[in-house]
Fold this sequence. Notes:
The protein is of the alpha/beta class. The chain has helices at about 5-20, 30-35, 60-70, 75-80, 125-135, 140-150, 170-175, 180-190, 205-225, 230-235, and strands at about 25, 50-55, 70-75, 85-90, 95-100, 105, 110, 155, 165-170.
Amino acid sequence: MQAPIAEEAKRVLSEAKARGIVLRLFGGVAIKYHCPSASHRALQRAYPDLDFFGTKKQGRLIRRLFTDLEYQPNQRFNALHGDTRLIYEDPVNQRVADVFLDVFKMCHILQIGKRLELDEYTIPITDLLLTKLQIVEVNEKDIRDLVAILQDHPVAASVQPGDRETIDAGYIAELCSGDWGLEKTVTLTLKKIPNFLPRYDLDPQTKTGFEGKITQLLTTVSGRQKSLKWKLRDAVGERVRWYDLPEVPIRT
């Protein structure tokens, strides 16, 4: 019998904590943990796999953790990408555990490893949002996650230490001010979200507040002073692709 995915996440994280390993959850299961709206009938989706974030310096301990918990390593993928990402397969529950180390490399690169201590169970809510906003070819599953995050969390220009449930627009703007490509994708994704809102049965007041948060994020990002690197890349514009095409791991 397949164990509930939230219970499996808790099992892995509890064992990691007992071993002194800094490991945090992200992805859909982490979003559901932070967002009551993710359980709304219009925003519900399946969570087939688990995503974790750790640090490269604890890579050896993380590898041992998953093998001790009877996960099977994807030997080929781990040999090629093990410095920044590991794939483990759970044959009992027919799930995959995807483990990022220090950096999140998909369409864009996000340095998340240094921020893991900001929350004790998941990566910070702002980084959860960014992992979705950085997707170039965003699908409805991703949009549902974005809607749940934005519906359930306030947006602020800065966040006080210890505040784990407020989206830090200033942090997003700071990252984008030095990375033209990231800002391009974040802006495009934010502007796509309102087109999906009629599907999710939001009441008028919630819809207005939601659109206000998107506007606040866009305004904060666009208003931040840009670096010289950003300005030079802006001169090139869309003539050169500004994002990567992430590799999809082949399951063994």
